[in-house]
């Protein structure tokens, strides 16, 4: 048999749109991604979610603020 495709176990599902992926990663709606749809998906997938990055920054500032100076 030639070119026999495997059927998906997730029948009735669809790919998320780029904007849906961005919202799940907490990007604001005004944020724009460049390149092809595939490239945009990679940018979103490889990014640190903005709200998570903000929390990391806040925690880092607290640690640095309390650090004794030499």
Biggest beta-sheet profile: none
What is the chain-wise order of helices and strands? HHH
Radius of gyration: 20 Å
| Mean of pLDDT | 88
Uncertain parts: none
Helix content: 40-55%
- Strand fraction band? under 5%
Count of helical stretches: 3
**Would you count the extended β strands for me?**
0
- Overall outline: elongated
Gap between N and C termini, in Å? 73 Å
The computed structural class is mainly alpha
Q: Which structural traits does this protein have?
A:
70 residues; 49% helix; elongated
Short structural summary:
With 70 residues, the protein is mostly helical. The protein has helices at residues 18-24, 37-46, 50-66.
Structure in words:
There is one protein chain. This protein is mostly helical. Helix content is 49%, strand content 0%. The protein has 3 helices and no strands.
């Amino acid at each position: 048999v030639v070119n026999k495709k495997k059927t998906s176990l997730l029948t009735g599902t669809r790919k998320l749109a780029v904007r849906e992926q961005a919202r799940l990663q907490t990007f604001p709606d005004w944020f724009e991604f460049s390149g092809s749809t595939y490239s945009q998906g990679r940018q979103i997938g490889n990014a640190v979610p903005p709200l998570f990055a903000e929390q990391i920054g806040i925690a880092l500032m607290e640690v640095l603020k309390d650090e004794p100076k030499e």
